[in-house]
From TrEMBL:
Localization in the cell: Cytoplasm
EC numbers on record: 2.4.2.7
Protein name: adenine phosphoribosyltransferase
Source organism (scientific name): Rhinopomastus cyanomelas
PANTHER family in the record: ADENINE PHOSPHORIBOSYLTRANSFERASE, PHOSPHORIBOSYLTRANSFERASE DOMAIN-CONTAINING PROTEIN
Family stated for the protein in its record: Belongs to the purine/pyrimidine phosphoribosyltransferase family.
Keywords: Cytoplasm, Glycosyltransferase, Purine salvage, Transferase
Principal location class: cytoplasm
GO cellular component, one term: cytoplasm
SUPFAM superfamilies for the chain: PRTase-like (SSF53271)
GO BP: purine ribonucleoside salvage
GO molecular function, one term: adenine phosphoribosyltransferase activity
């Protein structure tokens, strides 16, 4: 799809074909959304689709997960006129932090961390990442926020989780059962994304 083309009718997810497929093999994610971010209308419509379920919800801050979640998270924060907090891979922050080990989508053991002075008890946080495959990274981010007293959405508490895609994996289903979630993949296309097609 042309980076200047905007379809006459823009249904939810029309911008998904802008994502570039993996040509480098199994050590890489199967899609790269960074081309979607180059399309001004595609990025705006993606953000609108992600944020629509949270309209009117009392969100205090947006938090993005290292690294590609920084792009969508910061854009969402600007749209909502809220502050933005980066949840980082361990070893990058020069301030006091809280750390959380996790296993990512590729099965690698990692650690992420967040500064301890940005989240106060009861702060309502919208967590944003580019993609949720197995849910391990997002669950670690939730644990960091909740250990500091912040609130990520349970269904009785309006704020939550947003990603371009939340796959129908065990971890993805767990997140959707326990938290208010939003993603951009239309229901009819979900099986293709789950099978990485």
């Amino acid at each position: 799809m042309d980076l200047c083309h905007v379809p006459a009718t823009r249904e939810k997810g029309w911008y998904l074909p802008l994502m570039a497929p993996n040509v480098k093999g199994p050590n890489y994610a199967w899609l790269d959304p960074s081309r979607l971010y180059c399309h001004p209308q595609g990025l705006q419509d993606c953000l609108n689709d992600l944020l629509q379920p949270f309209q009117g919800d009392p969100i205090d801050m947006v938090s993005g997960i290292d690294a590609m979640g920084f792009i969508l998270g910061a854009a969402a924060a600007a749209t909502l006129q809220k502050g933005f907090l980066a949840i980082r891979k361990a070893g990058h922050l020069c301030v006091q932090t809280l750390a959380q080990p996790y296993t990512d989508y590729s099965g690698r053991e990692k650690v992420m961390e967040v500064r301890t002075d940005a989240i106060t008890p009861g702060l309502r946080i919208l967590l944003v990442d580019q993609w949720v495959e197995t849910g391990g990274t997002m669950r670690a981010a939730i644990q960091l926020v909740e250990r500091l007293g912040g609130v990520v959405a349970a269904y009785c508490v309006p704020t939550g989780i947003a990603a371009i895609c939340i796959e129908d994996s065990e971890g993805g289903r767990w997140l959707q059962e326990h938290y208010k979630c939003s993603h951009c993949v239309p229901h009819r296309l979900q099986p293709h994304f789950d099978r990485h097609q």
